[in-house]
Amino acid sequence: MLQLLERSICYEDHGIMVIDKPAGMAVHGGSGLAWGVIDAMRNLREGMNIDLVHRLDRETSGCLLLALNGDALRELNTQINHDRLEKRYLCLLDGELHQDLVEVNEPIGKFERSGQTFMRVDPEGKLAHTTFRLMQDYAGYSFAEAELHSGRTHQIRVHAAHLGLPLAGDDRYSPVARQKFWKSKGLRRMFLHAHQIRFYTRDGEQQIVSAPLPDDLNGLLANLG
């Protein structure tokens, strides 16, 4: 696992690291998990004060931003607070996105069901903004890029479901019948990949780091095509 993460490093400089996180790997331990990405990276970079700058769901692959020291963490958090840090994801929407560009400005809040915590569009929730851009129409399904303008839990998943276009393979926000359908198509996890992140180093230099769509998701698109 440590070797896999070492090979997954996309960028490391200026006290900042970007990892192409594999799907199925949690970002931190807890809830029955002995370890996560952050625990493993602290093992790999002993003596460094490594922290997560943001989080990805366990089944989401792609660009995960880490700070390797306190100064970098403070700087990156400032960029987040001033909307200077840009995160873009690739996703497959279960249905047709009828416009090339769709803005979703809907607040998101928590609710509980059967002892589990879920998120949903809620007028009393926190402000949330996602931009969906159609990349390819697959005759009933939409391969899209989702750009986050805020960082709410499950934001893309909730906003996609709010449009009536839940993410393919989403085991929380899509109907059970559709989950079974996508499994029959060979999709073993939610189709969501953090493909690009943009940030600035402490000297003001812009960095754009990308992670290619993994083979399992590329294979599904090829079969749909």
Specify the helix fraction band: 10-25%
* CATH fold node name: Pseudouridine synthase
Shape designation: globular
- Gap between N and C termini, in Å? 34 Å
Quickly count the helices.
6
Main sheet summary: 10 strands, mixed
> Can you say what the CATH homologous superfamily is?
Pseudouridine synthase
Q: Low-confidence spans: pLDDT under 50, at least 5 residues?
A: none
Total number of domains: 1
Q: Give Rg in angstroms.
A: 18 Å
Structural class: alpha+beta
CATH class: Alpha Beta
Helices and strands, in order, run as HEEHEEHEEEEEEHHEEH
Averaged pLDDT, please?
A: 93
Summed up:
The chain is an alpha+beta fold. It has 6 helices and 12 strands. The chain has a single domain (2-224), classed as Pseudouridine synthase.
Protein described:
With 225 residues, the chain is of the alpha+beta class. It is built from six helices and twelve strands. The radius of gyration is 18 Å and the shape is globular.
Task: Map the helices and strands.
Elements: H1 2-7, E1 9-13, E2 16-21, H2 37-44, E3 51-52, E4 61-67, H3 70-81, E5 86-93, E6 101-105, E7 108-113, E8 116-121, E9 129-137, E10 142-148, H4 155-162, H5 176-184, E11 192-200, E12 206-210, H6 215-224
Parallel strand pairs: 4-11
Antiparallel strand pairs: 1-2, 2-4, 3-4, 5-10, 5-11, 6-9, 7-8, 9-10, 11-12
Notable characteristics:
globular, Pseudouridine synthase, alpha+beta, 24% helix, 12 strands, 225 residues, two-stranded antiparallel ribbon
